[in-house]
Amino acid sequence: MNRESIQIMMEEHQYIKRMLEVIRRYCYRVLQGKEVEYTDVYRIIDFIRNYADRHHHGKEEKILFNRMMEEMGALGEKLIRQGMLVEHDLGRLYTQELEIAVGKVINGDEESKLDLIANAIGYTHLLHRHIDKEDEVIYTFAEKNLSAEILDEVDEQCKTHDIKEEKEGTQQKYISLVEELENKY
User: Fold this and answer.
1) Are 80 and 65 in contact (CB under 8 A)?
2) What is the CATH number of the domain that holds 164?
3) Which residues lie below 8 Å from residue 15, measured CB to CB, with a gap of 6+?
């Protein structure tokens, strides 16, 4: 049985994966030369930056991963700093490059469609593998190796974070965006 915070993070992964599928379908339409709204890429980037990264990765980085590094010593440091955090940063790079590419496309640079597709698909591949590692390895490892007391603290801190985000409407805004773009693409 997963801890409450772990279970919620795994549920958030499902929304992220749904957006990854939207991104793939969007890119396929671009590749086929079909009509797309390039401004939707900015909405996808908003989801990536504010739901996947700020909301979800923020909880992982500031709460769970910090506790793993503090409590698990060198193994926790290696697992998090040289694994999960590197992948979070690579996702941010793909997103930054995607934003640059879509701006060029909107301004008439047809060749930048290649960069748009490459960075978007690179992001989806990275995140699929990353999510699988977290769901199947990292979270389980944390639950087995952190004390019940530490896991209770992680649960409480994540709950506080989620309550704040709920008041701001973060969850509903981005879940609605996923649903809207799923229907569109």
Assistant:
1) yes
2) 1.20.120.520
3) 51, 174, 175, 178
- Residue keyed to tokens 């086929």: 32
Cβ 178 vs Cβ 18: under 8 Å:
yes
DSSP string, 99-151: HHHHHHHHTT-TTHHHHHHHHHHHHHHHHHHHHHHIIIIIHHHHHHHS-HHHH
> What residues make up the domain containing 87?
4-184
- Label residues 125-143 b or e (16+ Cβ within 10 Å = b): ebbbebbeebbeebbebbe
Cβ contacts of residue 115 below 8 Å, gap of 6+? 97, 98, 100, 101, 104
Q: Encode the chain (185 residues) as per-residue pLDDT tens digits.
A: 578 999 999 999 999 999 999 999 999 999 999 999 999 999 999 999 999 999 999 999 999 999 999 999 999 999 999 999 999 999 999 999 999 999 999 999 999 999 999 999 999 999 999 999 999 999 999 999 999 999 999 999 999 999 999 999 999 999 999 999 999 99
The residue type of 73 is G
Place of tokens 């593998």: 129
Give how many domains the chain has, as a whole number: 1
pLDDT at position 19? 98
The two three-digit tokens of residue 49, written as one number: 């930056």
